[in-house]
Design brief:
Blueprint: E1 3-11, E2 18-26, E3 33-39, H1 47-64, E4 70-75, H2 80-83, E5 86-87, E6 90-91, H3 110-119, H4 126-143, H5 149-161, E7 166-171, E8 175-176, E9 179-182, H6 187-197, E10 201-204, H7 213-227, E11 238-243, H8 252-268, E12 288-289, E13 293-297, E14 302-306, E15 313-314, E16 319-324, E17 335-339, E18 344-349, E19 354-355, E20 360-365
Parallel strand pairs: 3-4, 3-7, 7-11, 9-10, 10-12
Antiparallel strand pairs: 1-2, 2-4, 5-6, 8-18, 9-11, 13-20, 14-16, 14-19, 15-18, 16-17, 18-20
Helix pairs in contact: 1-8, 3-4, 3-7, 6-8
Length: 380
């Protein structure tokens, strides 16, 4: 049994400034499996902080009772750099102010970093190959020299996540129903997770185009398996982004329920022993291709007047919202209908009703791949 509160110091990019990165390691040190969870990588998305706040005591009690079959590493607030992004009385936290890059984009491509050094070492034993690859990542980490604050922060996180069997990155959308992003090869695990989360959708893509954090841990194995088809290289990590509704859904009652559901999922994966925390939940929707989800955008500035509610089933051509003009001849009277481009479930809307050209105002989860959806499948 083990429960550690770990504090790492990050030197910031201006003289005299430092910040702390706090996290927890719970469970037997010699466990054969490892689970990594983090929240608030987008620092302006805080339901996950509350969820992990409630999950920590559940894990601590399970550890005290000897019920943990895995070691758990928990970063309840993984991005202190983004949490400090306060400007004119508002918190931002989605983009690194130094680089301009979204905190959940442009994470390292581990395949690129390690595939050459492991190529000649791969064997016909899948378990040995997992060890060889993880050892290669460990060596790459040891050789890396993080300099900037964001490099230091990412390095600490990767050090803790690289050998995990499950990596769960807790986020939220703008105004949304709960949903999941993952890879098709993890469908069975993600269906169970979706059921426990009561998710409205599970959106699948091998590569969403942005080098997001969760894809670091799946794509390295998928790319290695493709590059070396004569060697047995399993998907050694099930990783996902968990979108816990919208930004304002930070409440004890809601997020305690989320934490207990997450705990139940971990139990069904045999990572935690003991009686199920609650009854097995009903089945949710089957996973769909992320390229079948329309990210509806507007082409001009205006004020949104939504005509649909979250969870509504819409048809192509249905009016999702009217865009009220704010200038020109039709100022404050003209309403331009914004139409659905596919049949499907209305998964998310925009909290902010004033929008400008290029803004995403809705996600409609369909079942047919859209010809317009390729390359970068996520909004930035």
């Amino acid at each position: 049994m083990s429960y550690e509160h770990i504090v790492r110091t990050i030197s910031c990019d201006a003289p005299g400034l430092k910040t702390e990165l706090n996290y927890f390691r719970i469970g037997p040190k010699n466990a054969s499996q490892k689970v990594f969870m983090q929240a608030a990588l987008h620092a302006d998305e805080q339901p996950g902080i509350m969820i992990l706040h409630h999950l920590l005591p559940l894990l601590k009690q399970a550890d005290t009772n000897g019920l943990l079959n895995a070691q758990f590493v928990i970063f309840p607030m993984v991005n202190p750099l983004g949490m400090s992004d306060l400007s004119f009385g508002q918190h931002q936290g989605r983009y690194n102010r130094v680089t301009g890059v979204n905190f959940n984009r442009q994470w390292p491509d581990l395949f690129k970093e390690v595939h050459e050094q492991v190529a000649d070492k791969l064997t016909d034993n899948p378990d040995k190959n997992i060890h060889i690859v993880r050892d290669g990542i460990k060596q790459w980490l040891a050789q890396s020299k993080p300099v900037t604050a964001i490099q230091q922060q990412q390095h600490i996180v990767i050090e803790e996540a690289f050998d995990a069997d499950y990596v769960l990155d807790l986020h939220c959308d703008n105004d949304s129903l709960a949903h999941i992003f993952s890879v098709p090869q993890s469908t069975d695990v993600m269906q169970s997770l979706s059921d426990w989360m009561s998710a409205a959708a599970t959106l699948m893509a091998e590569d969403s185009g942005g080098h997001s954090f969760d894809e670091v841990w799946s794509t390295v194995w998928l790319k290695l398996a493709e590059a070396y088809p004569d060697k047995p290289i399993p998907l050694a990590c099930h990783s996902a982004t968990l979108e816990y509704r919208g930004r304002f859904d930070v409440f004890d009652s809601i997020n305690l329920d989320d934490a207990e559901r997450l705990y139940g999922f971990l139990q069904t994966q045999e990572l935690i022993n003991g009686d199920l925390i609650r009854s097995t939940p009903p089945a949710t929707a089957k996973p769909t291709d992320l390229a079948a989800t329309e990210f509806t955008k507007v082409n001009e500035a205006g004020l949104l007047a939504y005509q649909v509610e979250l969870g509504d089933i819409v048809k192509k051509g249905d009016v999702l919202a009217d865009l009220i003009a704010l200038d020109g001849d039709g100022a404050f009277s003209k309403r331009t209908p914004i139409l659905a481009g596919t049949d499907g479930l209305l998964l998310s809307r925009n909290v902010q009703k004033y929008v400008w050209p290029g803004c995403n105002i809705a996600k409609v989860v369909g079942t047919k791949r859209l010809t317009s959806r390729s390359g970068m499948l996520l909004a930035d």
